[in-house]
């Protein structure tokens, strides 16, 4: 606790920096844009193997997406905990300064008593020359007792506060360390899954890669067609709120920018980085990760969906996109892809959430 003010704050900031250093790209996944299916052309001898490759790649990128949500969640917690550590460091500095002043006051009181011959106030009172002096002295003694008692009480409380701040700072530091480890572990998962996917793709010949892209489009189109054939759009006719329009404008303005796991723009995005930033631009802060967006934002029936709403995909809520109307959504798909518009039904929909559920639409 003997550290100076600059030293404590510098230490706290250094701790924050050390824990939040692990910034890197983030992950999500999605099937490509459901444009009209191109002609498949002559089937390759390894056609069935390519379909297996497509499913394997989807599995790898989905695993990377789950790990990205873990990474983003750990990063978000680290940011909050870092801020708390800094605030505690400031409180410790203020507490130390207050304690120093209180001790100085106590020392001054002791010195005054020494200069008075070392006699306690009560002794001076007994030695008063006149009744009036006695009465005046009695009042001063009472005031002195109250002041001394108050000073001692304030000293005790300040020392107790400092001890509590130190305990809180230690607890937050342990949480930060645990968060750093969780973040590093998630990063390893992401990098491992992406590396495996890239290795798998790089082993394909050019014509196999082209055929693989066709298979991906076919799978996306098939899913979108089935979704549309269900008659879902017959019910979906909601109009965007003013904030929803702004969020859609932001998200669609990012089309063509690369996907990067852990990224929140402005040059690259992961899936939840795109949706969270789009809503921040519209004046509405929302959770950073797709899983937290699913947990904490109001759920909306698909039939009531309107532009600006967020579509959460897969049973683990590991991917998110923004509905833009007419059965389409905009999202940051996965590594190697760019922000794009795709059919809202190209992936299994878990549900829909609305960041501005407390506002109406025009």
Strand content: 5-15%
Cα gyration radius (Å): 32 Å
Shape call: elongated
Low-pLDDT parts are 1-45
| Assembly category | single chain
Termini separation: 58 Å
What average pLDDT do the residues reach?
76
> What is the β-strand count?
6
- String of helices and strands: HHHHHHHHEEEEEE
What structural class should be given to the helix and strand makeup? alpha+beta
Helix content: 55-70%
Largest sheet: 6 strands, antiparallel
Biggest sheet, spatial arrangement of strands: 1-6-2-3-4-5
SS element count, helices: 8
Question: What is this entry, summarized?
Answer:
With 362 residues, the protein is of the alpha+beta class.
Report on the structure:
The structure is a single chain. This protein is an alpha+beta fold. It contains eight helices and six strands, in the order ααααααααββββββ. Helix 2 (47-115) packs antiparallel against helix 4 (131-202). The longest helix has 72 residues, at 131-202.
How do the strands and helices of this protein lay out in sequence?
Blueprint: H1 5-19, H2 47-115, H3 121-126, H4 131-202, H5 206-229, H6 242-253, H7 271-281, H8 290-296, E1 299-300, E2 310-313, E3 319-325, E4 328-331, E5 340-343, E6 349-353
Antiparallel strand pairs: 1-6, 2-3, 2-6, 3-4, 4-5
Helix pairs in contact: 1-2, 2-4, 2-5, 6-7
Distinctive features:
alpha+beta, 6-stranded antiparallel β-sheet, 6 strands, 60% helix, elongated, disordered N terminus
């Amino acid at each position: 606790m003997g550290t100076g003010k600059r030293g404590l704050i510098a230490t706290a900031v250094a701790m924050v920096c050390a824990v939040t250093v692990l910034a890197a790209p983030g992950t999500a996944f999605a099937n490509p844009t459901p444009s009209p299916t191109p002609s498949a052309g002559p089937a390759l001898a390894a056609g069935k193997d390519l379909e297996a490759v497509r499913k394997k790649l989807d599995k790898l990128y989905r695993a990377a997406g789950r790990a990205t949500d873990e990474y983003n969640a750990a990063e978000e917690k680290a940011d909050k905990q870092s801020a708390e550590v800094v605030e505690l460091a400031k409180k410790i500095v203020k507490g130390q300064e207050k304690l120093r002043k209180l001790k100085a006051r106590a020392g001054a009181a002791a010195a005054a008593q020494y200069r008075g011959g070392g006699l306690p106030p009560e002794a001076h009172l007994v030695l008063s020359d006149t009744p009036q002096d006695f009465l005046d002295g009695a009042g001063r003694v009472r005031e002195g007792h109250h002041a001394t008692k108050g000073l001692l009480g304030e000293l005790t409380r300040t020392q107790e506060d400092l001890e509590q701040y130190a305990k809180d700072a230690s607890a937050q530091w342990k949480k930060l360390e645990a968060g750093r480890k969780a973040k590093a572990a998630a990063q390893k998962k992401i990098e491992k899954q992406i590396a495996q996917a890239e290795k798998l793709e790089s082993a394909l010949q050019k014509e196999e890669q082209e055929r693989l892209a066709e298979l991906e489009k076919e799978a996306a189109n098939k899913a979108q067609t089935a979704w549309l054939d269900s008659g879902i759009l017959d019910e979906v006719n909601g109009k965007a709120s003013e904030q929803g329009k702004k969020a859609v404008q932001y998200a669609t303005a990012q089309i063509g920018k690369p996907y990067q796991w852990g990224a929140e723009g402005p040059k690259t995005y992961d899936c939840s980085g795109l949706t969270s930033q789009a809503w921040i631009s519209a004046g509405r802060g929302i959770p950073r990760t797709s899983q937290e967006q699913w947990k904490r934002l109001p759920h909306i029936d698909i039939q009531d969906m309107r532009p600006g709403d967020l579509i959460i995909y897969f049973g683990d809520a590991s991917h998110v996109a923004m509905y833009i109307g007419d059965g389409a959504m905009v999202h940051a798909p996965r590594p190697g892809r760019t922000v794009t518009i795709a059919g809202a039904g190209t992936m299994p929909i878990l549900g829909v959430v609305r960041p501005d559920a407390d506002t109406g639409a025009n």
